[in-house]
Amino acid sequence: MAGALLRRIFSSLGVLFGVSLLIFILARVIPGDPARIALGPMASPEQVEALRRELYLDRPLPLQYLEFLRRLARGDLGISTYSKRPVVEDLKEYLPATLELIFFAGALMALVGLPLGILAAHFRDQWPDALARVLALLGVVTPSFVWAVFLMLVFSYVLGWLPVTGRLSEGMSPPPLVTGFLTLDALLAGNWVLLWDALRHLVLPVLALSLAGLGQAARLTRTNLLEVYAQPYIETARAFGLSSLIIAVKYALKPSLAPTLTILGLDFAALLGSAFLVEAVFNWPGLARYMVQATLHKDLNAIVGTTLVVATFFLMVNLLVDLFVAWLNPQLRGGKEEV
Amino acid sequence: MVGRLLGTIGVLFLGFMPLALAQEKVLRIDEVAVGELDPAKATDYADSMLMFNVYDTLVWPDAEGKLRSHLAQSWSVSPDGRTYTFTLRRGVRFHDNSEVTAEDVVFSLERMVAINQGYSYLFRGWVKEARALDRYQVRFTLTEPYAPFLATLVRLPIVNKGLVLKNLRPGNFGQMGDYGRAFLSRMDAGSGAYRVVSHDPQSLTVMARFPNYFLGFARGAPDLVRLRYSLEAPTVRTLMVRQEHEITSQWLPPEIVRALAQAGKDLVSEGGSSIFFLKLNNKRPPTDDVHFRRAMALAFDYDALLKILQVTDKVLMGKKARGPLPEGFPGFDASLPIPKKDLAAARAELAKSKYDPRQVRVEIAWVAEVPLEEKIALLLQQNLAEIGIQADVVKVPWALMTERASRPDSTPNVSAIYVSATFPDPDSLLYSMYHSKAAGTWLSMSWLQDKQVDDLLDQGRRTVDEGRRKEIYARLQRYLVENQVDIFGYEQVAVFAKQPYVRIPTLEDPQKQVAGVMAGNWLFRLIEIKR
Predict the structure, then answer these.
(1) ipTM confidence
(2) Reported pTM
(3) Residues of A in contact with B8 (CB under 8 A)
(4) Which of A323, B11, B117, B144 is most buried (CB neighbours < 10 A)?
């Protein structure tokens, strides 16, 4: 198991290197001069040329990449031409906001999606199943930004219950920085007012972001659980007179969770990159929005920096999910099969 | 125990309540990202809003576009137009309470030129030397006479030298390290009416009133300003209805502006610094022929264009343009005719052209990021068809448009673009668009390269006498209009929705509107909040 894990970590490093090379080249072949875009429409050709030199864009591509690797080794991702600040500083500022958002969304996907699927499978073809399936389908087919606008319309515009933008209300100072998660930092500081305010700001964006994954989780759980219910050993358990609850929780759920968790893990990791529309609607100062703006402004350093972060996150989540699935499935333990 | 429980409930209940802002007047306004705080790198509308509220400049234009004293109490210009000497007001304070001195002015110029971004091109190559004569006197020596110099100074915000030097980081500028770039991208070093409390270039800048500001504040001026960036249209609408936002940006879709007007919000507009052009490539067939160009301009339906720009019965996002300068802009020639559609005259001009309209096609390009331009391009295509000219409408991303503009053969026959003035002087718009030396940029997609035009533009730069300059620019504008170098689409009018309890004198009173400076009307200290 340990050997397989090490092999997996090394292969992940290889993937990261490949991603960095690929995105480095791709970002440079998109049409448009990054220096011209960064300096604005009135910049003189001389200014554009000077910035090109500063960004090493006047050098051959292999030399540019070597320079990038040299800086990366020092933890320097260069200056963002979009925000005009070091990319590392931008990442430090925006990443925690998005991570907090997607961790809450991921939790909701799992904590509501899985029970909804279990419920649907248990009451197969009865009204709870129909209701759960409709809700799940609605979640899957509706894009997150539509949910965002709809939820804002209902809970902020019409009812006025929940805040519209940002992570905290106006005039509220963030808690002392520990994790960058406002909820966690407020909790650590024992500031309940701040915690409550941060939670209220999370409700709408988290809901908008999680509904698709939640629906997906419910549908997959239901399907997989029904497949397991059809297995002979479940029939045997029933013949022994075990209750439905024991059969579901003790014998059926665990084997049915592996494929669901794999997909859920991928959905969760993908949120880091796809949260930008929700972040835009709720003016959430996060990484996804930064990443899209950087791409639109052809900000080479920020594009490479954010892509590396997303790729690392993706690989980490995949690794964790695979470990968890291996724990669920005894056949995958002990290095019999690679995690 | 019960007491603690009640206390907790009380604290939680407070979380539901809007914060106690009753005493504090807060102005919430939005713009598109990013908000560039460093004045040496600023270029855009949001950057300018920050620049004019956080920093001060030596001079500032009035409603007529004339330059008045600001940080400079007075100034003199040498007879040869090469030396400008300014005497600073005494006792003006930076936000750290140190006094604004001539050394700070020299440092600000040197820093801007060294960083070579933002508006540095206005000074680089022109200013030979900047020298502090004493604590309050500063002298600029120019390489050659340059009449617009005084106007360009509205783009030279004065930064606090001492504070910047204390916050240098390693960088490419020798002893100056990074010249304070990292510091000034996060915090300010200005003397303006507002100081920066916090700044996130992607989502929000918070500014607080600087009580020692030398020009004071209007009654009801905001204590705190929250400049939000890149809010989505539905978000702005919700915030406006909930009265959690005071003024919208100018970039809202017309239907949202209309909905806000119906919901009881006021609409205010700002014009006088931008023109929408249909740039005609004077070097590429068939638009290299003056009669062909005139035929196109005479076929264009200017009234239909205004209907496209209509927001409500009374509010439009533009008005007819007479030429390349907006009305009220310094040097504007009010005697130029207002263009109108005249198909008979268009056909007569086409008959004089060396091109047979059946044998040629015209390429009309619009910027992919500005959907409104597609409607205008399609209108022109339809109008040209009425006189037998066939046209293709193409969508071009902005990044590609700037590349296509680099050569006359790749520049489209017609390019739909907006051009805004950087400083209040006709040179700001005309030189970059029409001088041969400025060819190859998106601004000069007309590819004029006309010696007579070059001479007039050069004369305009060398002539210090205001009266003579006005004559030169009037002659130039007439020449450009008569030769139909471009189709002068409309003067852009930016429309903003605001809460009825907010008053913006610089936009609501035409006598107080500043012309010719992008975002020059957004002086928060003059805005009144009556709530």
Answers:
(1) 0.79
(2) 0.84
(3) 192
(4) B117
